[in-house]
Amino acid sequence: MKKRVRYTIYVITAIILIVVIPIVINELYKTNSGYVTNWDAADVLNYYGTVLGACVAVGALIITIAFTKRQIQRDSFIKNQEEKWNRIDDLVSGSLVKIHPTRIAEIISKASSKDFGETISALHLFSFQAKTALDSLFGYISGDDYKLLESLLLTIQDEAERYCSIAMKLSSQYQELILLEIRKNAVQIQKTAQQNPTMFNEDLQNSQRILGETADLNEKEVFAEMNVLSGQLSALRDNSYRALLEKKRSKFTEIHDQWTKEADSILGF
To answer: Ranked by mean pLDDT, which of 24-28, 204-208, 218-222, 225-229 comes out on top?
Structure first.
């Protein structure tokens, strides 16, 4: 609305300068009365045309300088915004890589009964990295930038908590598998003790204690629970994680469009 009013004023002013004033000058000289000059209407119109042309040239120069200045400001603004948001995009993408559920699947696929402890350590490392995935981003962005990304970042944190929960549950299952291996050794000690009555009482007592502490463990139940957790992980990967990637894409597109419009507004007169 303001631009329309402004452009209307420009048009009216141009009509007055180009059409109305020359007509007024011509009409004043037609009456041939009042103040008498040594020049006629043609001289005045030539003079007026020269002055008007000079004013237009100066005005065009001023507008060109102002436009060039704003163009430089716009280019500088775009460069700064591109550098900042490319960096933020990289940090967000990096955090999404850290929480990717496929990482848990890779850890499980490499699990070996010879060293479940290594698998447990890898799951704990994943959980730690997922929970701290956004720390670098939080240290970089400003408060205003956070407001633009708040919904996306909260979603990433929620997803990270889900994946960490599954990782920790799987870790517990692997701990139970370790206990089951220890239980098998304890059962073997018991059998050996029956064949060798002179066996150390301490080993026999330890094996009895282990059998008592692990009496509730069931290997089939442990593997069944692990299969359930793996299914939940696959569902999260196929649904919520892909939805998170789409949300990230649409959010950054929205932000790009927003600062692009802000850049274009710099050129407005």
So the answer is: 225-229
Give the list of residues 6+ apart from residue 62 with CB closer than 8 angstroms, or none: none
CA-based nearest residue to 107, from 171, 178, 21:
171
Q: How far apart are CA 269 and CA 251, in angstroms?
A: 30
Question: Taking the model in full, what pTM does it have?
Answer: 0.76
Number of H helices, E strands in the chain: 10, 0
Residue 237, amino acid: R
CA distances from 195 to 171, 189, 211, 232, 240 (A): 37, 10, 19, 47, 57
What are the residue boundaries of the structural domains of the chain, listed by start?
37-265
| Inter-residue contact 162 to 113 (CB < 8 Å) | no
CA distance 162 to 5: 56
Query: Residue 269 has what pLDDT?
Result: 55
Contacts of 190 (CB under 8 A, 6+ apart): 204, 207, 208, 211
pLDDT tens per residue, range 36-64? 666 777 777 888 888 888 888 998 898 88
What is the rounded average pLDDT of the residues 146-155? 94
Look at the alpha carbons of 97, 99, 105, 110 in this order and tell me if their dihedral is positive or negative. positive
